[in-house]
Amino acid sequence: MIGFELKNVNPKNKKTSDCVIRALTVATGDSYEVIRDELIEIMKKTGYMINTKNAYEKLLKARGWDKHKQPCYPDGLKFKVGEIDYLIKENESAVVSLANHLTAVEKGKIVDTWDCRHKTIGNYYTKGGVKND
């Protein structure tokens, strides 16, 4: 199972509904402010709020990230966030969606304000492909 690092990249260390900005900040390596402002520009152009899938997918696509459908085992059982290391390259960054949350993988760990490894993966996003591609 992948590791977990408790970290809040919110510049004021606030616990608020900013998981999209935090996850994209961790995964891309850009500053919180750069990601926030880019999402605001997407919102201005499209009308999608900055914390919606439509907005963050536009940002990721524009930056060359690949979207992957919800992963399942051959028996139909769905992968948990803690099992993302079976799907991505070693030390590859990833953005992982789950019910009502977005999180990031950096240097082999989930980096977030809470440990969501027990939750089911929805879609996930990588830059540069996945294992066995």
Summed up:
The protein has helices at residues 19-28, 32-46, 53-62, and strands at 3-6, 66-68, 94-98, 101-106, 109-112, 124-126. It is of the alpha+beta class.
* Domains, number: 1
Shape: globular
Helix tally equals 3
Number of DSSP-assigned strands: 6
Q: Summarize the main sheet.
A: 6 strands, mixed
Residue runs with pLDDT of under 50 for 5 or more positions: none
- What order do the SSEs take from the amino end to the carboxyl end, as H and E? EHHHEEEEE
Q: Tell me the β content.
A: 15-25%
Mean pLDDT: 94
Cα distance, first to last residue? 21 Å
Category from helices, strands and their pairing: alpha+beta
Q: Rg from C-alpha positions?
A: 14 Å
Range of helix content:
25-40%
Strand order of the largest sheet: 1-5-4-3-6-2
Give an overview of the whole structure.
By secondary structure, the protein is an alpha+beta fold. The chain has one domain. Helix content is 26%, strand content 19%. The chain has three helices and six strands; from the N terminus they run βαααβββββ. α1 (19-28) packs across α2 (32-46) and α2 crosses α3.
Any descriptors?
133 residues; 3 helices; globular; alpha+beta
Protein topology:
Elements: E1 3-6, H1 19-28, H2 32-46, H3 53-62, E2 66-68, E3 94-98, E4 101-106, E5 109-112, E6 124-126
Helix pairs in contact: 1-2, 2-3
